[in-house]
Write a structure and sequence with these properties.
- This is Spore protein YkvP/CgeB glycosyl transferase-like domain-containing protein.
- InterPro entries: TPR-like_helical_dom_sf (IPR011990), YkvP/CgeB_Glyco_trans-like (IPR055259).
- The protein is an alpha/beta fold.
- The protein has three domains: 151 residues, Glycogen Phosphorylase B (Rossmann fold, 3-Layer(aba) Sandwich); 146 residues, 3-Layer(aba) Sandwich (Rossmann fold), CATH 3.40.50; 78 residues, no CATH class.
- Helix content is 49%, strand content 11%.
- The protein has 22 helices and twelve strands.
- The chain has a seven-stranded parallel beta sheet with strand order 3-2-1-4-5-6-7, sandwiched between helices. A five-stranded parallel beta sheet has the order 9-8-10-11-12, with helices on both faces.
- The radius of gyration is 25 Å and the shape is flat.
Length: 522
Amino acid sequence: MLIFLLGSQDFAAPLSELGHEVVRCAPDPAADIPVQGPDPDWLSVANRAAQMGLRPDAVLVCDDVGFRNLPVGLGQSEAVTACYLVDAPLNEFWQQPYARLFDVALFDQPAQAARAVSEGVNAHWLPLGVEPKRYESNMLAREEKAACFVGVVDPRVRPKRSAVLDRVRRRVELRVQGGRQGKWFATADAAYMYKTHRVVINENLFPGLTTRPLEVMAAGGFLLSEAAPGVMDRHFADFEHLLYYDHDNLDQRLSLALGDDGLRRRCMRAGREAVLGAHTLAHRADQLAKQLKHALEDTERLAKRPDHGQAIGLEGQALLMSALRWPGKDGRRRLLRAAARLRQANDAGVVGLPTIRAAAVAEMALGRHDAALGLLRQAMEHGAPCDALALTIFEKQHAGVVTQNPGLHQLVQRHPGLAGRDGEASFHLAAAALLADHGRGMSAGFNKARSPQPCWDALEHLLEATRLDPTLEPAWRLGGDILLDNGAPCEASMFYEKAWQLSPRRQTMERLALARQRGYLA
């Protein structure tokens, strides 16, 4: 196949080695087709391809963690369109609408692929892979030290990770390498560490199969990894390829790993064989190419795509959320492009709450209050409680008058605090309770505190409520519940501790104990 590759270029070499012709389209003068910025319009790429006499069979967009890539206009291509989206649990806010634009959407974690399938997307789980050549030079290195960890360690950003490493450090000597701000540890040096330490620790930011465990096993290291039930154990077995731990048995598993040389040798050998046999970039490229080929054989794929109005609405949603999440990465340009697309979709009669909501947020972010107000009122007509809340907040902030409607009256009856001003702690607590009741507790990977207030989730309202009134115990307790339910136990424990200090309830203490246990603090 002739494959145009946009975004991350990691698959260029393995796809070429499989016999496919790969055309690199990137913001790089040395690329086969240089493009402008991370979000090129397909039309500009297609025009350049036509000049070169190239007609792709497939267009593949690969997510780039360093600088998210959102090419637009791909629905106009007659080629198969596919995307590969990574760090999926932390990027659902933009990846889910973006995935709907493609003939094939591949996610690096299974839960997000399943969610996309439930929305009618042709989505699949494609786990991450590694390039084994990067780890072969250390095969003769010998174990010398006890335990190591490579990765970002910052208790303000990854408190559970710091808690795990503190537990390990209390028992054995632990070497830690890695960090932010250009301090990443070189791959070759990391591979040497993996091979020369008896145990390599892995902690999960989210329960999934990530690159780090594959790197450790590819380097021939012994991996003691936090368990990810239903994901990682589909491919790697406890006591066969590695050892898993959880908050109940970390100390016991660490002692076992350090004390059983035979177990370590068996797992090191089997783990490396498993990665080299099924989890390299070459394996992933082959799986990816098979998905492209299957889609190419689908004669109805063009008819299954969103129509033009729907497509620009989805593009607008994805561009908007990436602009709000990463304002320093071409954020203003993305925001303007998002707003233009969302207005076009709305003008084209694309009716749907996600598009209307996104259009309202875009207008808010641009300071176009009249346009935002009209869109918020349009959204509220659909009767969703969260939309009535968003309109109420915006009107309190900008319009000076609150629209009287039955929906809002019912909200105030259930949450009396909504009758107050948006600058009152009780108002934010009531808003948080409403949003939490409707599945809007928090957005993983996206703190919306700097975004327009009408698009906040419950957690942002609770943070504001506790800032305004640090003695508001229900806000601390609800914040703990939301954080614990969303896989942030250490952060939850801080909220529960504050709630317990203000009102020592048995239920709060039980939740605090659970949060401390899950956060490796107990």
